[in-house]
Amino acid sequence: MTRFVDVQALSGLVRQMGIAGFVTALADTLREDFLRWPDFDLSARLASHTALGVIELMPVSDAKRFAFKYVNGHPGNTAHGLPTVMAFGVLAEVETGYPVLLSELTLTTALRTAAMSALAAQAVARSGSKGSRRMALIGNGAQAEFQALAFHALLGVDELRVYDIDPQATDKLVHNLAAFPALRVHRAAGIADAVRGSDIVTTLTAAKTRAAIITPDMLAPGMHLNAVGGDCPGKTELHPDVLRAARVFVEYEPQTRVEGDIQQLDAGFAVTEIWRVLAGSAPGRGSDAEITVFDSVGFALEDYSALRLIHRLALEQGVGRDIELVPAAGSPKDLFRLTR
Length: 340
Ligand SMILES: NC(=O)c1ccc[n+]([C@@H]2O[C@H](COP(=O)([O-])OP(=O)(O)OC[C@H]3O[C@@H](n4cnc5c(N)ncnc54)[C@H](O)[C@@H]3O)[C@@H](O)[C@H]2O)c1
What we know:
alpha/beta, Rossmann fold, 2 domains, binds nicotinamide-adenine-dinucleotide
């Protein structure tokens, strides 16, 4: 049977563990899998674009497990009462091809993207006494609370400066984060105001356009930029000179060249895959003054890690239920029996 974890089941699991607990477990799982990077059969995702958005399939496998995620990105969806990003995914055994897990991945995508951002920032943002305490959060939609709480739990960020062109999105974020009093939240008057004095700048905007939300005049020495919303051809958030002024870290270079903010630069622009920094085979930040960018687009291995964690927790804690996704009893050669 296939374990089915729907939105209610996943949200129950997250409520039980707490967001910090879940994101910490996910960051540990991501680290384990990124340290095994050469074990995986990697490919850029398959994307089907329209003027309104994109629908993508994201496969990855190692010798034991195959995973894929279905995900969309439609910035206009919220005006029709639908999320910008919606997803589900499957984990299967490589040995037989049997799908062992079918799971919601909309809530999970927000959790895994936040865990990945925090893991990358742990590797390359400033730490120690010149650490990262204040974060600007530009774009206060569905992903925002998860990024805020992952950076709070894993990097010690305790002050947020938040801004969205939609004040109601910021109202929602401020309201939701009021339950976490150790995290001080200030509404900024605009993007430059939010970024000024911040150690980390997280961009989480959704607009299918070549935006330059962060411009070079906003940069300060030592800043780390966690650029999450530029994740599709023709959809960016950073001015190209921001990238040129920084050391840029990516997930899977062939995919990020097409989808990330670095799509604006030529193919010779040097970037470092973050797994190399985690594995110690490439340097991270060079100095306290260096500007670093994590040009996040979302990679299949992150969903593999999330599905692997959900499957383990679901079996251990009885989360979700078993469904007959593929025919169970009876002769495997007599498929016709199901029609009688
Ligand atoms: N890199 C990844 O792994 C990953 C994962 C999930 C989502 N994303 C991307 O992150 C972005 C945010 O996703 P979401 O689910 O929160 O979307 P959302 O639609 O819920 O929220 C986006 C917010 O950005 C705001 N915004 C748009 N333009 C802005 C601007 N110029 N300045 C300030 N705010 C602006 C909107 O008003 C909205 O509130 C999307 O672009 C999505 O595709 C990336």
